[in-house]
């Protein structure tokens, strides 16, 4: 039997149907928000997966192009691999949901969201976030939810809840906040240098709206919720753990992890594991638990050191940033490059400039965004962490980190009218020990300025961590977390921005949410660290963009023509424009508005191409002098090509002051000449007078 539930959310109706479709899933919610329709399901395997020590959660966000009335491109005419937007949505759904499942749950769980209809004013991504929370909450899968999610925009200084498509275009903020009944559990934001106090106000406004949604979901669970099933708990044998601690000793474990060198720490842990494997060689059951037991022992040790002893594994103060280094112009032939290093995290970013025609075209369900001019890509090779594995292309993590850096830098990029380039930055992670995404933001900002991209202001990023105790007031915030503190801590709170304000936020946590006090302190801490990085490390290297693009970057000049003249510049079957390209070696892009971009490393050739295009589209003026080439000779005169689509004739009587018996006595085919326009008759014929021959 189908049950329907509805509420008004930001002036639009959110309706949830339970029992109408997908009845065999553990939980299913048929979501309607305006005309956006998403089927959200939650399913779990009957038994735990063998041989793993993590919770196997998969989140899928499936974009179907029929949802926006499109047929997929390509030969197969069906959807292929997930788009970048789909992958980013997978991640934003995953982050608030994952912490609410039991930590020792080993059953496979899939949260699937099928986007079936899209109303541009009602976000399918938000609808899927709510749908996943509802489907899981009503299912029999163990889950300490529900969660609720809200988007906030900032239009003309006013907050807008779940902004429409038009509002998003002019909004200075794109914020998504997920909450539990009491706390904020996920924050994701892109912003146009929004001040910290405004961002905080927006976060807590979203949290208030989330409480209304949670009350709505509670009503659905009360009517449709299933009893949560029992599951096989996965824990280390207490007797084995006690024996391990007595054998290794807490003091020895603390000494093993208390170092600022990641490789030394890892070697120490391997040595401990080898001792335990030797000790339990005759006890197969305990031997199988060594890895997880050592993990738990490390985690307990690190958290105690930080929270109770106020000691970080590398000896830093809680507010201290690791040693920093920045440089530019690392690579000789690229358009721009920079290196940024924070402790054992090292990132090199390379900038490449191209024509606007090289902007990335997007084929997805977002009808408002068809291309993007700025692309940031992030690569995390195995050697950066001292491991070996084959490269299989970017995974979800790499795509997510690249998108975060891209979001942080977009607000400071120059307008296309000011800087008519497509821009690609690629961050290569050379070494990793925590917060590479924020390192890539710093390196990319430096690289952009080094390449001559006139960004509005430098952007820096920093991450703070968290270790919590038994109560909400028992916690410690750590500035610039390294890998171990991220691994065993409770939070990775990434904030990027300029001196003026925040441009991006991404918050990952492993606990059931953050209090208002923690959020305020975390944002204040990132502001302090970000300011230090900008002024003490980045600005001394390069504080503003160079006033010219790099030696090997293409130069671009723009020229605007009447759109009706575009066909004349292109010519029949592209003959005219290809002729200009062959003659000058430039690259030419023309858009439908009549904007012409001419690219070349040689400015003289750009100027020549513009001159040719001008000669095509601009009318000739009687009395003016033009240069051309003799292309045909007749007994009565010579024909001169003034432009690819304009020929004029010099009558034999106009070749010289004195009498000319034969045209070839004065000019020949291929001669360059300067001519004056004497007349353009009613039929458009151009009569010329020879002024002089131009010597090569």
Report on the architecture of this protein:
Residues 223-302 form the KIX domain. With 696 residues, the protein is α+β, with helices and mostly antiparallel strands. 30% of the residues lie in helices and 30% in strands. The chain has five domains: 3-148 and 201-224, 2-Layer Sandwich (Ribosomal Protein S5, domain 2); 238-307, Arc Repressor Mutant, subunit A (Orthogonal Bundle); 324-538, 2-Layer Sandwich (Ribosomal Protein S5, domain 2), CATH 3.30.230.70; 555-617, K Homology domain, type 1 (Ribosomal Protein S8, Chain: A, domain 1, 2-Layer Sandwich), CATH 3.30.1370; 625-694, Beta Barrel (OB fold (Dihydrolipoamide Acetyltransferase, E2P)), CATH 2.40.50.140. β25 and β26 (637-643) form a beta hairpin.
């Amino acid at each position: 039997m189908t049950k329907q539930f509805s509420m008004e959310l930001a002036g639009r109706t959110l309706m949830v149907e339970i029992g109408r479709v997908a009845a065999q899933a553990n939980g299913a919610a048929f979501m309607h928000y305006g005309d956006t329709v998403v089927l959200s399901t939650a399913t779990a395997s009957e038994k735990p997966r063998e041989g793993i020590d993590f919770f196997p959660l998969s989140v899928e966000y499936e974009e179907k192009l029929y949802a926006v009335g499109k047929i997929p491109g390509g030969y197969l005419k069906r959807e292929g691999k997930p788009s970048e937007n789909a992958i980013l949505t997978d991640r934003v759904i995953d982050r608030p949901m994952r912490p609410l499942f039991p930590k020792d749950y080993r059953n496979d769980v899939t949260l699937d969201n099928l986007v079936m209809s899209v109303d541009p004013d009602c976000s399918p991504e938000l609808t899927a976030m709510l749908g996943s929370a509802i489907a899981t909450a009503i299912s029999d899968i163990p889950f300490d939810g529900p969660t609720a999610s809200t988007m906030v925009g900032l239009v003309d200084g006013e907050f807008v809840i779940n902004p429409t498509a038009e509002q998003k275009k002019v909004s200075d903020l794109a914020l998504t906040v997920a909450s539990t009944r009491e706390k904020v559990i996920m924050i994701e934001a892109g912003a146009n240098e929004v001040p910290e106090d405004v961002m905080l106000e927006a976060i807590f406004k979203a949290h208030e709206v989330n409480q209304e949604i949670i009350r709505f979901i509670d009503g659905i669970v009360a009517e449709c919720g299933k009893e949560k099933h029992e599951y096989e708990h996965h824990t280390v044998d207490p007797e084995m753990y006690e024996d391990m601690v007595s054998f290794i000793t807490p003091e020895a474990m603390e000494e093993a992890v208390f170092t600022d060198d990641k490789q030394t720490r890892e070697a120490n842990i391997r040595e401990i594991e080898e001792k335990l494997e030797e000790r339990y060689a005759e006890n197969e059951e305990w031997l199988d638990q060594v890895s997880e037991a050592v993990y738990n022992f490390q985690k307990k040790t690190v958290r105690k050191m930080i929270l109770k002893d106020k000691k970080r594994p590398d000896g830093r103060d809680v507010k201290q940033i690791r040693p920093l280094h920045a440089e530019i112009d690392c690579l000789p032939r690229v358009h721009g490059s920079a290196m940024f290093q924070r402790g054992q995290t090292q990132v090199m970013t390379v900038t490449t400039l191209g024509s606007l025609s090289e902007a990335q075209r997007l084929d997805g369900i977002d009808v408002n965004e068809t291309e993007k001019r700025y692309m940031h890509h992030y690569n995390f090779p195995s050697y950066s962490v001292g491991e070996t594995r084959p490269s299989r292309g970017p995974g979800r993590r790499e795509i997510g980190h690249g998108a975060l850096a891209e979001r942080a830098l977009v607000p400071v990029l120059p307008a296309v009218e000011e800087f008519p380039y497509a821009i690609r930055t690629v961050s290569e992670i050379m070494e990793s020990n925590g917060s590479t995404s924020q390192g890539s933001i710093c390196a990319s900002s430096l690289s952009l300025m080094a390449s001559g991209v006139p960004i509005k202001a430098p952007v820096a990023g920093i991450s703070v961590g968290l270790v919590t105790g038994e109560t909400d007031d028992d916690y410690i915030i750590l500035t610039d977390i390294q890998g171990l503190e991220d691994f065993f801590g409770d939070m990775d709170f990434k904030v990027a921005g300029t001196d003026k304000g925040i441009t991006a936020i991404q918050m990952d946590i492993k606990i059931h949410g953050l209090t208002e006090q923690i959020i305020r302190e975390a944002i204040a801490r990132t502001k302090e660290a970000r300011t230090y990085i900008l002024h003490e490390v980045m600005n001394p290297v390069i504080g503003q963009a160079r006033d010219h693009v790099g030696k090997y970057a293409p130069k671009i000049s723009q020229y605007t023509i009447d759109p009706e003249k575009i066909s004349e510049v292109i010519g029949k079957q592209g003959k005219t424009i290809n002729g200009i390209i062959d003659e000058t070696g430039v690259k030419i892009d023309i858009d439908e508005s009549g904007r012409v971009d001419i690219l070349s490393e040689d400015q003289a050739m750009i100027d020549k191409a513009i001159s040719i295009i001008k000669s095509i589209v601009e009318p000739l003026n009687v009395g003016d002098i033009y240069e051309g080439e003799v292309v045909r000779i007749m007994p009565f005169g010579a024909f001169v090509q003034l432009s690819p689509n304009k020929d004029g004739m010099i009558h034999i009587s106009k070749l010289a002051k004195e009498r000319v018996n034969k045209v070839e006595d004065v000019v020949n085919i291929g001669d360059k000449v300067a001519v004056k326009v004497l007349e353009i008759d009613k039929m458009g014929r151009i009569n010329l007078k020879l002024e002089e021959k131009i010597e090569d």
